[in-house]
């Protein structure tokens, strides 16, 4: 996963990031049996874990503090945690149950979503039918629209960050590149994202706004319909040149509505892009989504076009074997416990959080 090139000055005690109020849940790694590796990133791993007390299964994201501090990424971790706290109220965003820390690591205890990454299914099937692509695009757009309503820009939409749940509904995950506090007319300028899905304005290092997410949605829809991202090339320089300068090529065989939506979302000028004026409302009202009842979609009353047929809450059949073949590191459950009063670094003060059942209603 690509990360922002944050030009952060060296941290001093005054600069340490406080990650919000702590509810002191007294959670610890030994509360869990860690069963399998289900994902990896720059700062650590995501593991399938079973809580010993209630036998429920979770995805536990375990991050190495020293790597975060070395790369000066505390602010991104803060953003991820804060966005997770705010995302509890949407059906297509992954849910944070609680977070805690030890001396060496940070732990996010999340829903285990086991229908597989959209990327995994695309690799297997190459492309999807238009109705199936429409369903996923609508659910993702609903989640993005909700984040935008909270003045959050997602910035890293790609098939690897779109999971399917056990019924086949979309769950958006990985909020490490989210940018908070971006008002409707505001812009930001940090260079970040994943090469195939970067909007032209990010490549040009120009200030950009929430319409970067609609470009990425267009890129994901294009890949679902045509099996590769738009402008894709193994040569990154050539791909960037295509994103910046070449017209969008739409192979034949797709509906006029699908082509119209792609042209609107993959508009190089962010000010003319679909969503530039009325944001999610413009996407909802596009003819491609005429058959979608958005209220039914939000309440999961539409039957997903594909059922992953998971075999139970601990099923890993849709997780890439590249991850599950890996041994679970012993260190995830054996690190010294965190004591705020004796900690030498307060860079992660207040990281701990515990939800109540009310949070998830």
UniProtKB/TrEMBL annotation:
Region annotated Disordered, chain positions: 1-23
Catalytic activity: L-seryl-[protein] + ATP = O-phospho-L-seryl-[protein] + ADP + H(+); L-threonyl-[protein] + ATP = O-phospho-L-threonyl-[protein] + ADP + H(+)
UniProt domain Protein kinase: residue ranges: 32-289
Domain of life: Eukaryota
Claim: Nucleotide-binding is one of the keywords in the record: yes
UniProt binding sites for ATP: 70
Span of domain AGC-kinase C-terminal: 290-361
Keywords: ATP-binding, Kinase, Nucleotide-binding, Phosphoprotein, Serine/threonine-protein kinase, Transferase
SMART domains noted in UniProt: S_TK_X, S_TKc
Its EC number(s): 2.7.11.1
GO molecular function, one term: ATP binding
PROSITE patterns membership: AGC_KINASE_CTER (PS51285), PROTEIN_KINASE_ATP (PS00107), PROTEIN_KINASE_DOM (PS50011), PROTEIN_KINASE_ST (PS00108)
Pfam families: Pkinase, Pkinase_C
Role, per record: Protein kinase that may play an important role in cellular stress response. May be involved in the regulation of processes such as cell survival, neuronal excitability and renal sodium excretion.
Family: Belongs to the protein kinase superfamily. AGC Ser/Thr protein kinase family.
Name of the protein this chain belongs to: Serine/threonine-protein kinase Sgk1
């Amino acid at each position: 996963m690509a990360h922002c090139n944050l030009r952060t000055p060296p941290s001093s005690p005054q600069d340490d990031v406080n990650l919000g109020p702590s509810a002191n849940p007294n959670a610890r790694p030994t509360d869990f049996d860690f069963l399998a590796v289900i994902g990896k990133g720059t700062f650590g791993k995501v593991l399938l874990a079973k809580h010993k007390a209630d036998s429920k299964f979770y995805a536990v994201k375990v991050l190495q503090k020293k790597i975060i501090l070395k790369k000066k990424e505390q602010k991104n971790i803060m953003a991820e945690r804060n966005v997770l706290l705010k995302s509890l109220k949407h059906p297509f965003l992954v849910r944070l149950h609680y977070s805690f820390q030890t001396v060496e690591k940070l732990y996010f205890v999340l829903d285990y979503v086991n229908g597989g990454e959209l990327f995994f299914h695309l690799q297997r099937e190459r492309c999807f039918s238009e109705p199936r692509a429409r369903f996923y695009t609508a659910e993702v757009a609903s989640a993005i629209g909700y984040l935008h309503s909270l003045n959050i820009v997602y910035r890293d939409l790609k098939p690897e960050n779109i999971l399917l749940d056990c019924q086949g509904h979309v769950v958006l995950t990985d909020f490490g590149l989210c940018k908070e506090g971006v008002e409707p007319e505001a812009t930001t300028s940090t260079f970040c994202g994943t090469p195939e899905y970067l909007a032209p304005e990010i490549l040009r290092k120009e200030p950009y706004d929430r319409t970067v997410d609609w470009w990425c949605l267009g890129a994901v829809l294009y890949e679902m319909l045509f099996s590769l991202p738009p402008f894709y090339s193994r040569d990154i320089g050539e791909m960037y040149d295509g994103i910046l300068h070449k017209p969008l090529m739409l192979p034949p065989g797709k509906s006029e509505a699908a082509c119209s939506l792609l042209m609107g979302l993959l508009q190089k000028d962010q000010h003319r892009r679909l969503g530039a004026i009325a944001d999610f409302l413009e996407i909802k009202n596009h003819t491609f989504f005429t058959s979608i009842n958005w209220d039914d979609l939000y309440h999961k009353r539409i039957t997903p076009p594909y059922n992953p047929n998971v075999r139970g809450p601990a099923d890993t059949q849709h997780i890439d074997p590249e991850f599950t073949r890996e041994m679970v590191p012993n260190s995830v459950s054996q690190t010294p416990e965190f004591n705020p009063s004796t900690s030498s670094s307060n860079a992660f003060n207040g990281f701990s959080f515990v939800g109540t059942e009310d949070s998830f209603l």
